[in-house]
Amino acid sequence: MEPNAAWCLADATTPDGAAAPESPRTVARRVAEQVSSLGYTLVCGPELEFFVCQQAADGSWQRYANDPGNVYVVGRKGDPEGLLLHMLRQLRDAGLRVTTANHEFSPGQFEINLGHSELADAADRSFRLKSAVQEIARHRGLLATFMAKPFNDEGGSGFHVHISINDASGANVFGDPDGPDGLSPTARYAIGGVLRHARALSALLNPTVNSFKRFGPDTLAPWLIDWGLDNRSAMVRIPPERGSAARMEVRLGDATANPYLAMAALGAAIYLGIQDKVEPSAKLEGYGYDPARSQMLPMRLGEALDALESDNELGAVLGEFFVTSFLAFKRNEIERFERFVTDWEFREYAYHL
Predict the structure, then answer these.
(1) Whole-number Å distance between alpha carbons of 124 and 122
(2) 66 CB contacts (<8 Å, ≥6 apart)?
(3) What is the CATH number of the domain that holds 36?
(4) Cα(296)–Cα(278) distance, rounded to whole angstroms?
(5) What are the C-alpha distances in Å from 160 to residues 40, 64, 86, 123, 325?
(6) Does the residue 5 lie in any domain?
(7) What share of the chain is helix, strand, coil (3-state, %, to 5)?
(8) Domain that holds residue 316
(9) For 149-167, how does the pLDDT look when each residue is reduced to its tens digit (9 = 90+)?
(10) CA 202 to CA 207: how far, in whole Å?
(11) What is the pLDDT of residue 217?
């Protein structure tokens, strides 16, 4: 990033100076305030995955360090230019509170994790991280993309969020040594809320046409509405730690999600779960891709938007004006996609038809 350069985050307002209701930061603050009305603070720890690409001689983009076998490696083996370490130092100096990073499952894919904080601050830092990662890559002549699934032959990039709940004293109330699975009633209600509203949540956590190409069995991405104890095939994973480290990891989102909207949507579902005392379904044990065991998530953007539109409870927490605006923008996106002739269509039809 540029030396001696300042940064700032601004809020969008209406002409009369009020907070713009469709602004993602406004939505995030709105949800945080409603969670606060229950006596709680939502604490979020974001994890973002992305691909790095390098330009080929013909001008196309291909995966950076695209060699087989670079799965969760460290050092120059999967990152010959030392890009990830350089990014971490830059992000650290920018005050983004990076904690860990690693080469991900696919070649050219990386993950960077941020320290946990309250919802609005975690969203601010996630937004800045995405912008910074793309800019740092450009300085090296590379392309960093948070596209959900940029390649047909590899998996996609996720946006996982670790979430815990603090009371007014700042104590984590997610864990309870005497509760089932070491979880408090509040934690169970929070899980129940995310499960109940999962289909609507997918519109905000998987917000592009491309997002739904990331889903499917055995993809490392959830496609069913379920939860489990330290089960990485579940949509909601409960890590093994308890006490002050008790939390849930929501694995639904992909990296294209707007951080403010993704965490606000999860906060809204958790708020409703706690308010309505929603008990979660039986926890997943074993294989997490059997559609006979759990309800399936939406498999297309249009289906997810319909689920969001019909979820009046979630929409009321997020704000009806915001939801109406979001649905209009995204349905227009689908219309434009459906009218666009793709390379696949030409390859499939042109020669024979």
Answers:
(1) 5
(2) 107, 108
(3) 3.30.590.10
(4) 19
(5) 21, 23, 23, 13, 25
(6) no
(7) 40, 20, 45
(8) 24-345
(9) 999 999 999 999 999 999 9
(10) 7
(11) 78
Cα gap 14→90, rounded to integer Å: 35
Its pTM surpasses 0.85: yes
The alpha helices in the chain, defined as continuous H runs, are 24-36, 83-93, 119-139, 185-196, 198-205, 259-276, 301-310, 312-318, 320-338, 343-349
* 8 A C-beta contact, residue 174 and residue 187: yes
Per the prediction, the chain carries an average pLDDT of 94
| Type and span of the H or E element at 98 | strand 98-103
Read off the pLDDT of residues 122-136 as tens digits, 9 standing for 90 and up. Answer: 999 999 999 999 999
Q: CA separation (Å) from 283 to 157, 175, 217, 293, 345? A: 25, 16, 18, 11, 42
pLDDT in tens, 19-65: 999 999 999 999 999 999 999 999 999 999 999 999 998 989 999 99
* pLDDT at residue 290, rounded to an integer: 82
Is residue 67 in some structural domain?
Answer: yes
Structure tokens at 25: 């930061």
Is 1 inside any structural domain?
no
CB 165 within 8 A of CB 186: yes
Cα separation, 88 vs 83, whole angstroms: 9
Q: How large a percentage of the chain has pLDDT more than 90?
A: 84
- The number of distinct structural domains making up the chain is 1
Structure tokens, 284 = 């997943």
Token code pair at residue 15: 């002409």
Tokens of 186: 């509040």
* Count of beta carbons in the 10 Å neighbourhood of residue 259: 27
Separation of alpha carbons 51 and 153, rounded Å = 13
Any domain includes 18: no
**Cβ contacts of 40 within 8 Å, gap of 6 or more:** 165, 166, 167, 173, 186, 274
Segments of the chain with pLDDT less than 70: 1-2
Q: Which residue in 57, 38, 100, 72 sits closest to 270, CA to CA?
A: 38
